[in-house]
Amino acid sequence: MSARTDLRESARDLLAADAAKIAAVMLGIYVTYLLVGLILGYSANGMINTLQRLTFLVAIYAMVVLALNLHWGYTGLFNIGVAGFMAVGLYTMAMLAKPVEPTGGAQYPGLGLPVPIAILGGVLAAALVGFVVALPALRLRADYFAIVTIAFAEIVRLLYTASPFQEFTIFGYTMGTGGGRGILFNFQDPVVTIYRLPIFEGPVTFVNQYVEFGPADAQGVIYVGLLVVVLAGYYLLLKRTGESPFGRVLKAIREDEEATNALGKNTNAFKIKSFMLGCALMGLVGILWQFRRAGITPDAFRPHVTFYIWIALIIGGAGSNTGSILGAGIFTAGLFEGPQYLRRIIQSQISVGQPPGTFADAVGPMFALNFQPITSYLFNNMLTLQFVFMGVVLVWLMQNRPDGLLGYRTETAAAVPLGKRSDEVSETVHRADEPSETVSGTDGTSETASREDEVSDQ
Amino acid sequence: MGGPVIAAIGESYSRGRSVVAERPLTVVVGIAGLLLLFDLGSGMATGRYSVSRIGRFVWDGLMYGLIIGLAGIGLSLTYGILQFANFAHGDYITSGAFMGWGVTYVIAGLSSANVGHLLLVAPQGNISGGLLEIGVTSTPLAVLVGLVVAGLATILLVLLLDRIVYRPMRDAGGIPLLIASIGVAFALRYVVVLVYSTRTRGTTLRPPGTAINLVDGPLLIDAHDVTLLVATVALMIGVHLLLQRTKLGKAMRAMSDNRDLALVTGIPTERVIRWTWIIGGGLSGMAGYLMVLWTGTIDYQFGWLLLLLIFAAVILGGIGSVYGSIFGGLVIGIAMRLSLVWLPTGDFDLVAAFGIMILALLVKPQGLFAGRTTA
Amino acid sequence: MSETVPREDEATAESERAGDDADAVLRIEDLHKNFGGITAVDGATFGVERGSMTGLIGPNGAGKSTVFNLVTGIHDPDSGSVWFQDEEITGLRPYEVANRGLVRTFQIARELANLTVMENLMLPAKAQSGEALWRSVLPGFRRQVVEEERELRERVWETLEFFEIQHLADEKASNLSGGQRKLLELSRALMLDPTMLLLDEPFAGVNPTLEKKLLEHVQQLNDEGRTFLIVEHDMDLIMNNCEHIIVMHQGQVLTEGTPADIKANEEVIEAYLGSPWPISNDTCRSISPPWSSWNDWENCSESCWP
Ligand SMILES: Nc1ncnc2c1ncn2[C@@H]1O[C@H](COP(=O)(O)OP(=O)(O)OP(=O)(O)O)[C@@H](O)[C@H]1O
Ligand SMILES: [Mg+2]
């Protein structure tokens, strides 16, 4: 078998079931949002921006949920410090990439490395930090591990906020985190470089004939396209990781670490590797999520972020890669973006009136059976209500759908299909011809016979 | 990244788990602690460190520690008896404080604003605790009633949440319960925002302090410090007596030690659980109220921010142990403030506290008071 | 054999008796283990002859499972040593012990509940190059991993056929019955191709038909040259199938010998009588000689069923 057929094979399984499911869900989401855009009277440009933002968020969440699924779904490592690893990736990358000589008001200097190298540096830093956290925490119970990871994430955030690191010099190199004021991303945006590639010239002019589409918009679309490619890479990587002897050991560790160890597997080494890989992937997501902005403050990495990722993972069902992507899609479209669009739609259709200033002013009139103030108060606080709703959803899921909204999914922990004895016709024929050596008795012969039946069926 | 290298590290790490990881780490941590204490002592003796400054740190740390310890008792009890880490505990504290302080505002300021506004702890800027001159000496009744209401209202809230969220999941296991509690924390926090707004407000007018002379300067102690001290210690003694002297306490200890056995021996487990929530909820609400009295400010996320410190205390002391959580609270509180002696700026006190927790988990995961559950 | 053991000075008379004349594949010497206040193993010493089927019996709480845990590295002994094939393995991690060819099963089956039977069996196989992450993931190397997985799948099928549980191949382990789980554990242990197997009550909760089958399999594997050390409470089974029996009581080796020796040993009966453990009437009869000498059959049934 050549590498090409190998690739084709995996492309085929991808399409067979899981990719189809993902495509169906995403299609449903897009159609819904297009309808929303129509109701809101968006221009073509507005529509594209809406879908682009949606795709961006889904891709980002899907990637980080996949990484978390490696930790929790596969290995049983209860990591609730995801935001911390994302922050390490992004901050390291930014500090490496920022120019050595800041010009204008552009804050603190960096090391001035090319962006791709800086990205690699950020990913490695996240993996390394993962190692530092995992090594001591390996032997802790899941709930203690959770507390250690969230404490770690908070430590990271506090350190990036701390003023002594705003600007510091180490080994003669000066750089800085920017402290509470945050860090500016004043380095060359590689997406602009990609955008300037000749192959994009034609399509951009072509599209511009029909819709008003500035370079910033075009770059946004190109970037989202890139993210989808990276997401496909994540999926393939983690699918292969799961469907392998390595992934099998991880799943076994999640079930019963001691028994797995007694079966000859150095469980600690597997846990460290799994944790580091997941952290590296989280670090990369941290970078991809934020680095095209003008800058960032450590507040972007509050525990909320981790909370969102966990909801998405649980919606999709821990332990399933496809579920992770579906969960990210449903979470983003339904819980994260949905309420805001809902609010806009309602606002465009009816007038909810001037909201009262306080909860008391909203509740008071209810006793006189006037529900208008409370409605407009809640409406005005839709964002807050949305957070309440997310919390409620998480509780509901844990009570009613602990295996995910779509139910329990199994993904084979082996590099070959296990249902049948062989996955290749020729091999089956070969086996059936052979006299069976180990099997004795009628059972064995009937097995062989049934296998022959299978062959003739094919 | 060399697989074999990691494998070798994992291997040598696990092989040495009894030798390299357990004892020497304990030794290193112990030595580091002793060195710091020695430095502190010698620094004060030689005048390198200001005694009154350190006195201030210790006193503040004690206050923080008492709050953390008091709030920690509830977390520790539920952790021990219901077998899960309740991440909503911090938001119980916040909710209780808001409800209690609403009542305090109403009593202290009925003449100056409408009840609704006061009950919401004045979400809009025209009145404040300072303006109403709220304080334990100026409005003692308002504070006392507020404290009691904080406890009672939190108990009701906690029982309600147990009924809706946790009771249907009694046998789900620690991890699903933990995840559900994160959902509860989030929902509750934003219900608080919805009702009370995100505004941070000043709640008290600080009473004048008495100066105590400490070698090179005064240590100011005011009535709110003393109230906090007296109230927390009284509550802790109360819980102690409750757990030691009553049948309930015995049942709780039995359940915390071995839930299945307790079930078999006919302990009315649901009743014990209800009482656990009542004690834990009441203490957390009152701890929140006292914290706000002491700091003089309230906002929607102070309980959540306190939660990790409470976890630190409970884990340090040993889960399920009441004394452990008090002791752990004091250690965390004082260490957090004392760390300012060595750290360059005030940015690192939380880092130090979380660091201590992680070290405690690594050195003695079963906690310092392990095995003496609920005693 | 014990000449190669460099700690003769400490070896007690008992230990010499245990391992001297036999070709011991596994030897434990003066093992001690305390749990809090409880002394679970208190100076146990014995050897297991290569290729033998040896029984390890004793009343509940005698320390049998703890000995297994100490031998296989689940727990570290407080003192004493464990030797396997002339190599000291005291304090090694469980995976290191298993990879040396000494594999155990657990008293309460430890199936990996959410994996299928196939996956359970594929897990322990040795030398899987796909356990290196990069080999499983990188395109060029992945092909080899897939190839190995095919071969492994074949081996697993052979093992399943050997135990006649092919029909369970795709079943989630959590759906198996108690007896099937015991079978799964044994077959999974075999995937490591062990020199020696430690079975902790492999027949408990297994129905008589399955038990007979399981026993046949064990005997067949024993005939292939694999050594077995079996903990079992069913005396008939042990007496009829083991050539050598070690009796533990209160963390120590009370005595050892052939089934006939054990049956004739009064200490053994006393040890069992002193425990609250209900032994079946069959067992009473099987160790009848001393009983009849005490001339008290009634007493037997009574203490057997307290
Ligand atoms: N992990 C442990 N922690 C505390 N005590 C233990 C532990 N393992 C075993 N013990 C205690 O050690 C003693 C010996 O137990 P062990 O399981 O070895 O007995 P056993 O001979 O296997 O008994 P059984 O026939 O009932 O399986 C018992 O008193 C038991 O309670
Ligand atoms: Mg046993």
How would you describe what is shown here?
The complex is a heterotrimer of chains A (458), B (375) and C (306). With 458 residues, chain A is mostly helical. Chain A has 19 helices and 4 strands. In chain A, α2 packs across α13 and α9 (245-255) packs across α11. Chain B is mostly helical. Chain B has one domain. Chain B has helices at residues 3-15, 17-46, 51-82, 89-109, 115-119, 140-166, 174-196, 223-245, 247-257, 259-264, 269-295, 302-317, 322-338, 349-363; strands spanning 201-202, 210-214, 217-221, 297-298. A two-stranded antiparallel sheet of chain B has the order 1-4. A two-stranded antiparallel ribbon of chain B has the order 2-3. Chain B starts with a helix and ends in a 12-residue tail after the last helix. Mean pLDDT of chain B is 84; it is low at 10-21 and 371-375. Chain C folds into 3 domains: 8-111 and 176-273, Rossmann fold (3-Layer(aba) Sandwich); 115-174, no CATH class; 275-306, no CATH class. Chain C has helices at residues 13-19, 64-71, 94-99, 117-122, 133-137, 139-162, 178-190, 208-223, 235-241, 259-263, 266-273, 281-286, 288-294, 297-304, and strands spanning 24-35, 38-49, 53-57, 79-84, 87-88, 102-104, 196-200, 227-231, 244-249, 252-257. Chains A and B meet through α4, α5, α11, α12 and α15 of A and α1, α5, α7, α12 and α14 of B. The structure holds adenosine-5'-triphosphate (ATP) and magnesium ion (MG). Magnesium ion binds at residues 64-65, 107, 200 of chain C. Magnesium ion binds next to α2 of chain C.
Counting helices, strands and paired strands, the structural category of chain C is: alpha/beta
User: Can you tell me the overall shape of chain C?
Assistant: globular
Average pLDDT for all residues of chain C = 80
What is the number of helical segments of chain B per DSSP (H or I, 4+ residues)?
Answer: 14
| Order of strands, widest sheet of chain C | 6-7-8-3-9-10
Total number of beta strands of chain B: 4
| Poorly predicted sequence stretches spanning 5 or more consecutive residues of chain C | 1-21, 275-306
Assembly type: heterotrimer
Provide a brief overview of the structure.
The complex is a heterotrimer of chains A (about 450), B (about 375) and C (about 300). Chain B is mainly alpha-helical and about 375 residues long.
